[in-house]
Write a structure and sequence with these properties.
Largest sheet: 5 strands, mixed, barrel
Strand content: 35-45%
Shape: elongated
Structural class: alpha+beta
CATH architecture of the domain at 5-106: Beta Barrel
Oligomer: single chain
CATH class of the domain at 5-106: Mainly Beta
Order of helices and strands: EEEEHEEH
CATH topology of the domain at 5-106: OB fold (Dihydrolipoamide Acetyltransferase, E2P)
Length: 159
């Protein structure tokens, strides 16, 4: 498919909003991504323009985002870029850059983290296994036996 996959590094700008919807858990937050460059005149690193992305997470990723992502934390986000433009009544046209996240993690070049596996819900208890039903009907060995069997089944069906 022709999708634009991006990997961005930035800081969480808004508290994640978590919702349970019919399709499963969903979470969204804004990520601020600021370009940095070396300013030769000043001899220091300087902040450039800041881009803001709305990051969308679904299913287990949404649950994990809600549990451990907070405002100000540095993140690495990988996902599909979607740019939307809309015109609302009485307003000018505006654009929004969204990322449907595939993976989200803390930027370990700027701090440390402790990874913990997500707890999966327990499977329902397994009941005693029933034997597999015999789905195949055995072939009659003799054509006369087949006629007798059909006659017997017809008698049983009538009664």
């Amino acid at each position: 498919m022709n999708e634009t996959i991006v990997c961005v590094v930035g800081n969480v700008a808004t508290q994640p909003v978590y919702r349970e919807v019919a399709a499963g858990p969903s979470a969204r937050f804004r990520l601020a991504v600021t370009a940095r460059y070396w300013d030769r005149e000043r001899g220091t690193w300087t902040d450039g323009h800041t881009n803001f992305f709305t990051v969308w997470a679904n299913r287990q990723l949404a649950t994990n985002v809600a549990a451990c992502v907070e405002v100000g934390q540095p993140l690495v986000v990988q996902g599909r870029l979607k740019v939307r433009t809309e015109v609302r009544e009485g307003q000018q046209q505006w654009a929004s850059a969204d990322i449907d996240a595939v993976a989200i993690g803390h930027d370990l070049s700027r701090g440390t983290a402790i990874f913990q596996c997500a707890v999966k819900p327990e499977a329902p208890p397994v009941t005693a296994a029933r034997p597999e039903p015999a789905w195949e009907t055995p072939r009659p060995a003799d054509p006369q036996d087949a006629d007798v069997r059909q006659q017997a089944e017809a008698v049983v069906a009538v009664t």
